[in-house]
Specification:
The structure is a homodimer. By secondary structure, chain A is α/β, with parallel strands linked by helices. Chain A has 11 helices and 18 strands. In chain A, strands 1, 2, 3, 4, 6, 7, 8, 9, 10 and 11 form a 10-stranded mixed beta sheet that branches. The first copy, chain A, has a 4-stranded mixed beta sheet with strand order 13-15-17-18, with no helix packed on it. A two-stranded antiparallel sheet of chain A has the order 5-12.
Chain lengths: ~350, ~350
Amino acid sequence: MKRYCVIMAGGIGSRFWPLSKNNYPKQFLDILGTGKSFIRATYERFLPLVPSENFIVVTNAAYKDLVLQQIPEIKETNVLCEPMRRNTAPCIAYAVYHILSQCPEASIAVTPADHLVTNEREFQRIIGRGLDFVEQHRDALMTIGIKPSRPETGYGYIEVNDKQNDAIVPVASFKEKPDLENAKKFLAAGNFFWNSGIFLWSTDAIMSAFRQYLPDLVHLFDEGKNMFGTAQEQAFINNQFERCENISIDYGVMERSKSRYTVAADFGWSDIGTWGSLYTHAAHDEDRNAVSGHAVVVETANSVVNIEYGYEAIVQGLDHCLVALRDHSLLVCRLDDEQQIKQWVEKL
Amino acid sequence: MKRYCVIMAGGIGSRFWPLSKNNYPKQFLDILGTGKSFIRATYERFLPLVPSENFIVVTNAAYKDLVLQQIPEIKETNVLCEPMRRNTAPCIAYAVYHILSQCPEASIAVTPADHLVTNEREFQRIIGRGLDFVEQHRDALMTIGIKPSRPETGYGYIEVNDKQNDAIVPVASFKEKPDLENAKKFLAAGNFFWNSGIFLWSTDAIMSAFRQYLPDLVHLFDEGKNMFGTAQEQAFINNQFERCENISIDYGVMERSKSRYTVAADFGWSDIGTWGSLYTHAAHDEDRNAVSGHAVVVETANSVVNIEYGYEAIVQGLDHCLVALRDHSLLVCRLDDEQQIKQWVEKL
């Protein structure tokens, strides 16, 4: 099997403070109480498509043990450790060079580690078909689009010329996160899809794109080409990685490419990037609260109460609020204001 | 010196959950951030009036070590341990019998361990004068009244016939906690004072009252009369104390006595019996929040935020609320509803 899955798991998830902290980011948490962390669920979701030995996890060196704890099936050498964060383009280049050392004709699915998918069967159908496509079209860079269900301003969008369902079609353009007015227009138009951050391509397609659009990155990695897949790989990366440009794969490659494709999928996807999206996807009590942990919740509605095991809480008299307690840190705020969490944490 | 001070420190203070829990009640906490626990402040407040060796603390056996930690000046044998709670009359009888074994002609000040006094000099003047009075009037039972500053419904009241300031006068009657309408009348009338729960009397006066109004209690304690002040005292109490009637000194003695006196004092007293009173007496920030601990408080007003050392918190978007975090327990509620804390804790 020449299919690989690259799980990008280097994020620190500061938007979920205090649940997700630097020492234990979101991808390693079971925020929704499904019994599995996001990264574990991601692995299992791709497992019918990709042999277990072909999973590559790219993460921060600090999280290597967490990855191996949660996916003990993968080899330690398949956990690639970034010495620092350099955005998705260098992360993906690192994984691609590593895969090239093992399988020059691979087809690769690249996925974030911390998204929710509720319809795994449809997911596997879409991704399987996409992998077939990029194996037949060895210049194609494919990104998975999600049919929008609301005028979301928190996601980037993919525009296509043709809104034909279920077909793999060329991308017309990528759109940055829109304001509400434009998000409503995108939703109404029907030919705009959320950008899921899941990519499919062959080694040929992605290496050709890297050479064309990010030649400096290729130059940096080519210096150690023969070290990938060997005992020297980590030392080379530790020396070289800092010099990589901090650039996303979307901005560095996808927006510039001429041979990019997408499909409008509908497999119950969310990036669970905010407490609000957690609230949306969690189970609710009769007062529309999403409560987890040992908590008595009284005269409270439309709120998230998330109490770590080992703590107890009484919450009364709140509406549209968030109460999260974990690891000696407490957050109480209005759900509507959660985009400010990062700045409050900095203040703290 | 024949003056003694009895500090009653057996309470469990469930109204201050989670700060005050069974294993660490309010009297041992520095809730106001003054640098001293309530019991330590009580000891220091009486120290100019009573020799250090004449302090008696009555507490639960479980709190003996906490008492000795916070008042290392007192002898272990002066910490009297109740095997269970039996209200203030048995507590005081226990202390009085213990004192009688050392000093039959003592005069005694009895005080709760967990009150706030801001004007200690005036306090010492009032108590000193009261002790002089009960030493001259060896049948007098004296209780300290507090000039009311608001129509408080959380305190009992002492009625006098004469509202002459600063004089020690007979008590006309004791009034239970009034409703707001009556509290307003009491305040307007000028001859009603808050009952502070601080008592002054000679051994003669209190023993005579016990004999007259609580003869069963006297009978119980008389059985072990010769054991007080000896190595047998604790075993005797452990056997006998459970049989004591659960009755307050107010109801059992003061309301029935004919020779009771009071003085209307004004020394900045509060029983800090509620989060609301803590809020009143604590320092406030510009948004009228009382904040203690490592907390970032944003867009929040008129609230108490009390975060234990070792925790950190972000609190946003609240008004008239209470956020308290201690010992793995969190309380978030409206300040106005704090009288329900006890029932929420039971639910938890």
